[in-house]
Amino acid sequence: MFYKTFHPEIFQGHLKKKNYFEGWYFKYVTKNLSHTFAFIPGISLNKHDTHAFIQVFISDRTKENETLKTYYFKYDIKDFSFHPKIFKIQIAHNIFSSESMFFSIDNEELDLQVHLENQHLTPIKKSLIFPSIMGPFGYLGFMETYHGIVSMSHQVKGSILLEKEAISFNHGKGYIEKDWGTSFPSSYTWMQSNHFKDPKTSFMLSYATIPFLFFKFKGLICVLVIKGREYRFAILQFQ
Q1: How many domains does the chain have?
Q2: Per residue of the chain (239 residues), what is the pLDDT tens digit?
Q3: CATH number of the CATH domain containing 168
């Protein structure tokens, strides 16, 4: 249990739960900021439609406008597998880990091949009191939603082939985080960026209404990294 608490990046659940979700968020941005790709591999366990999934977000920016396309691909839950001690999951032939990402699909919706490497990851600092971004709440086993940060910012190497067109991500930037639990907060705001004038600056913020026993509270978690120094902010407001 404590190993998972201090390693939120690995798979936290098990496939026998009846009401559970877990998903990892990978974001990649090209060096010239022209393309942003985000991938969310994960699982959804419920009595109506248990399945594994991979969501894809594609943003294409030009001087004139910016387009965003989203896709949701479902897989049999039997296609999902994971490593118990390190961050590595697989959905069918697609592999996601802290070191790299391999994804490919070719159907009537999308023709996409991805081979990217993550280099020089920057995880947040850990301690006995703060084993993860959840702080002491990370030790509690009855929260409805948990959040984890895998890398605030890292370098990317590789390319993406979109509809037979190659897009280089060499010297681009990446970000990885995740969520898991029984349900998402009833309301939340989230923002993240690692593109600033100072290349070592990165930022994430999440503000949500969270159920807690017979109460609920509004909670804010925020991480700001400037020139290698990490600043952590947290606010709780019980209702």
Answers
A1: 1
A2: 689 999 999 999 988 888 999 999 999 999 999 999 999 999 999 989 999 999 999 999 876 788 999 999 999 999 999 999 999 999 999 999 999 999 999 999 999 999 999 999 999 999 998 899 988 888 888 888 999 999 999 999 999 999 999 999 999 999 999 999 998 887 889 999 999 999 989 999 999 988 777 778 888 999 999 988 999 998 887 76
A3: 2.40.370.10
Assess if residue 8 is contained within a domain. Answer: yes
Residue 63 inside a domain? The answer is yes
Across the chain, the runs of DSSP E, i.e. the strands, are: 20-29, 35-45, 51-61, 66-75, 80-82, 88-91, 94-97, 100-106, 111-119, 145-162, 165-168, 172-181, 188-193, 202-212, 215-226, 229-238
Q: Is residue 200 part of a domain?
A: no
Decide if 169 is inside a domain: yes
